[in-house]
Design brief:
Blueprint lengths: L3 E7 L16 E2 L2 E2 H10 L6 E6 L4 H7 L9 E2 L4 H12 L9 E6 L7 H10 L5 E7 L4 E6 L5 E7 L5 E3 L3 E4 H10 L8 H7 L4 E5 L10 H11 L9 E15 L3 E4 L2 E4 L3 E2 L7 H13 L5 H4 L13 H13 L3 E10 L9 H12 L6 E6 L5 H4 L3 E13 L10
Helix pairs in contact: 2-10, 3-5, 5-6, 8-10
Length: 406
């Protein structure tokens, strides 16, 4: 039997955080946020295995975040956190040798579970059915109420004696917490300790850690980046790469063409399995090339009916997600459209804005140009449109530390 498994919940969508990716896959010091906690959990000598609960749509992002780590295969989560934890616990029952004796349940958006904190939790399980890290509430608490104009005003003071701020990981005997989750399915309790309490389990409080904070906003992500930049933290070297893409589509029946995500009126359309956007296709190939991830046809085969008429913005967003999952970012990009007609100039700024929106870039990092071939070749004969793109990206060139002694 496996003694101790860490179950990391990372199936959320992070709507409050914003950005093109769920927050657990946003870049922190050059690698996905999720990878930071996975390294610390997998590197702890008393944790024998780690499993991550993910959203099914995030498998490519997860694979990039967990690349090279010795983890159990991920499992799919549910609609709510409580559902995801329950499904993760159920999946651990099928491990070779059976369910583990103990489990640590951690939020993937907390990147810094320190080794000493993990030791405190595991030690506490020797005498209790569960244990959670917590910090005493030191600020004065006020209950808010609605003012005359609907604004929030100060209500009564709430006594803070005996109040604690709970963190994760939360540690439990496996059989007890798995049974508690089954018994409380659908009740939407706020954390695993609440589920344990509902089942009558005794849960110990151990000293938490201020550095074990949850990344909920962009400000939190910046705080985490500052922590990693402190003296004593290993720094990550970064490298710049470039990628090139080229695409061609011929004209066919239609009344407009899609160019760099913008519909442009024209007496013909472009033929293709998707929306035939040569600009976004060349840009997608350039991004994939920069990270050595093949080409657009490998990720979105033209033989697959799923992509019939698809918006090519999805292709570019996918490539950007793979880059972000490797801790990379786009430095700048340049797209050149090659055609006699339609005229690109009147739509150039709209195209730049659309690309910047898809990739989450500042407009100044996006260039769109157009040229003709002076009547030569298939574009000169107005048989179709070609595009080429160049992208520069920045990527980490090595991993991050696995200790974290707090």
């Amino acid at each position: 039997m496996t003694d101790t498994v860490a179950l990391v919940v990372a199936a959320g969508r992070g709507h409050r955080f914003g950005g093109p990716l769920p927050k657990q896959y946003q870049s922190l010091a050059g690698v996905p946020l999720l990878r930071h906690c996975l390294l610390r959990l997998a590197g702890h000598p008393r944790i024998e295995a780690v499993r991550v609960v993910i959203h099914p749509d995030d498998r490519p992002l997860y694979d990039e975040a967990a690349a090279g780590l010795d983890l159990l295969p991920p499992c799919a989560g549910g609609g709510e956190r409580q559902d995801s934890v329950r499904l993760g616990l159920e999946s651990l029952k099928t491990l070779d040798g059976g369910a583990p004796r103990r489990v640590l349940i951690h939020d993937g958006a907390r990147p810094f579970p320190g080794r000493a904190l993990l030791d405190r939790l595991l030690d506490a399980l020797d005498g209790h059915e569960g244990a959670i890290p917590a910090l005493p509430v030191t600020d004065t608490l006020k209950r808010g109420r609605a003012g005359p104009a609907g604004e929030a005003v100060c209500g009564e003071t709430v006594p803070r004696d005996g109040l604690w701020r709970a963190q994760t990981p939360q540690a439990f005997g496996f059989a007890a917490i798995e049974a508690a989750h089954r018994a409380t399915a659908g009740q939407a309790l706020t954390d695993d300790a609440a589920i344990a309490e509902r089942a009558g389990l005794t849960v110990a409080l151990v000293a938490g850690d201020e550095e074990n904070f949850k990344v909920t906003t962009q400000d939190d992500l910046e705080r985490a980046a500052r922590r990693l930049a402190e003296p004593g933290e290993a720094q990550i070297r970064r490298e710049t790469r470039s990628g090139n893409g080229f695409d061609v589509h011929r004209f066919g029946p239609g009344d407009h063409v899609m160019l760099c995500g913008v519909p442009v009126a024209h007496g013909q359309g472009l033929l293709g399995h998707s929306d035939a956007d040569v600009g976004l296709h060349s840009l997608t190939d350039a991004l994939l090339g920069a990270i050595g991830a093949g080409d657009i046809g490998q990720h979105f085969p033209p033989t697959d009916p799923k992509w019939k008429g698809a918006d090519s913005a999805a292709f570019l967003a996918h490539a950007a997600g793979l880059l972000a999952a490797r801790g990379g970012r786009v430095v700048n990009l340049d797209v050149t459209l090659i055609c006699e007609r339609p005229k690109v100039g009147p739509h150039r700024e709209a195209m730049r804005r659309r690309i910047a929106e898809i990739l989450g870039l500042a407009l100044e990092r996006v260039s769109v140009k157009a040229t003709t071939t002076e009547g030569l070749g298939f574009t000169g004969r107005r048989e179709g449109i070609a595009a080429q793109a160049t992208v520069s990206v920045e990527l980490p060139s090595e991993g991050i530390p696995t200790d974290g002694a707090s």
